[in-house]
Structure formats: C-alpha cells, structure tokens
Amino acid sequence: DIQMTQSPSSLSASVGDRVTITCRASQSISSYLNWYQQKPGKAPKLLIYAASSLQSGVPSRFSGSGSGTDFTLTISSLQPEDFATYYCQQSYSTPDTFGQGTRLEIK
Amino acid sequence: EVQLVESGGGLVQPGRSLRLSCAASGFTFDDYAMHWVRQAPGKGLEWVSGISWNSGSIGYADSVKGRFTISRDNAKNSLYLQMNSLRAEDTALYYCAKSPGLELLNWFDPWGQGTLVTVSS
C-alpha cells in the first residue's frame, strides 16, 4: 500500500497568513493526489483534485501543486472559516490512502 | 443537488453483523463509482471499499477484506455495505462518497453525513 505522510500534523496561524501543508507519498503517484477540508462534526469537503485542479466553488486562495512524491496545499491568505483539518489522499492505486491529517488552528 | 444519505448504523456486539445503506439522489447513480470511507472517533480517514458503476470492479481495504461486502442496486439508487464479524476496531463514522467517474480510482465528492457504527459488548 502507498503510505501518505503529511506535515506538519498541526499548525497554528493567524488570519491573513500564508500557510503551506505538505504531503509526501511513499512512491510516485504522478498527479493522483487530492486534498480535503474537514470541519468538526462535518463530512470532508473536496478542495483540490489531481494535485492542482480547484474544485468548483472552492475559493481561489486555495491552491495545490506537486507531482511524483511531493505535494503541497497552500492557502494564500487565511480566513476565519479555513480553520479545520486537512487531508491528502492518493488515488493512484487501490487501496486509496489518506494522510494522517493536518489540524490548522487559530494562533 | 447531489444528496447521499447513509443509514443502518447503530450499536452492535463484537462478532455480529450490520448492513449500511446509502440512498443517492440528484444524479444518475449508475454513471458513477461509489465508495465507503470511515473515520474512527477522533481519528483520520480510512477508505473502506469502492464499487464501479456496474459492480464490475470492487476493492476493499485489507482491514475489512473477507468480512465486509459492498454492493449496489442501480435500480434503487442505493449503495450498501454488509459488515460481518464486526470488531471493536470497526467502530467509526461510515461515510458514503461519490466518485466523479465510472471507475474506482478517483477523488471523492460529495460525501454523505455519515452513519455511526459502534461495536461493543
């Protein structure tokens, strides 16, 4: 199985900050990498698919990049509603696997 | 509007069975693969199983292989997960999620609100 490792596991930031979350795959997954946001008590929401494609309706302050084994999710200017947990997921091979999550907290 | 509504969760004893259902609406159900993803209390996300549009391709996580069976009824716009030989470690919120295409390997969007399965004596 492909292992997905996110860093950091948690992060404190302020409104207006630029934030980057990293996801590393244990082998090359081309661009088969997706990002989700989950708020407490809610289902995950797709933000980015295929490494860099912004899902419809998602604010443009979210962006994704990378290919192969190293990927990043960037939030250009944090808004209050962005404080949540973020997960990466590889869809290169079965079983699909998720990173352990990055909890983004208010500083 | 795409809607996915899970049901069938509850409290069950170890070793017993449970069947989850996911009712889909707002899209042509038999045009898309579907998945089950779970989240143990306070933990991360774990893909459980997926099924292609015509049930021709099915996949399972190693943790549930041989115990869980995914199925779908396209005439009823419904997805199912038959869970046998349940263990304490199967305790989780189980989400139903839609793929953007016919086959398994893809992203998940949208997700239902989940149904809680608690395995305990």
Helix content of chain B: under 10%
Proportion of residues in helical segments of chain A: under 10%
The best one-word shape of chain A is globular
Order of helices and strands of chain B: EEEEEEEEEE
Helices and strands of chain A, in N-to-C order? EEEEEEEEEEE
What average pLDDT do the residues of chain A reach? Answer: 97
Radius of gyration of chain B over all CA atoms, rounded? 13 Å
Number of helices of chain B: 0
As a whole number of angstroms, the C-alpha radius of gyration of chain A is: 13 Å
- Largest beta-sheet characterization of chain B: 6 strands, mixed
Q: What characterizes the major β-sheet of chain A? A: 7 strands, mixed
Query: Order of strands side by side in the largest beta sheet of chain B?
Result: 2-10-9-4-5-6
Please tell me about this protein's structure:
The complex is a heterodimer of chains A (107) and B (121). Chain A is mostly beta strands and 107 residues long. Chain A is built from no helices and 11 strands. Chain B is 0% helix and 46% strand. Chain B is an all-beta fold. The termini of chain B are far apart. At the A-B interface, strand 4, strand 5 and strand 10 of A face strand 5 of B.
